[in-house]
Design goal:
two-stranded antiparallel ribbon, 13% strand, rod-shaped, 1 helix, 60 residues, 18% helix, alpha+beta, single chain
């Protein structure tokens, strides 16, 4: 079994971990009614529509 010949520095180990632990950007979809970018399968906070139907009454 292979063993390391030199110590791995904290910065080298941290940068390797950081490269593999990147967070993915959230998926966004366009609202069919107003064109606002929203999370998919959610009611639009701007206009209150979901799948072409008014679900929530907004003050706008």
């Amino acid at each position: 079994m292979a063993t390391p010949k030199h110590k791995t520095s904290k910065s080298r180990a941290a940068s390797r971990k950081a490269a593999n632990m990147k967070l993915a950007s959230p998926a966004l979809a366009k609202c069919e009614n107003c064109g606002n970018l929203i999370a998919p399968h959610k009611v639009c906070p701007n206009c209150g529509f979901y799948k072409g139907a008014s679900i929530v009454e907004t003050g706008k």
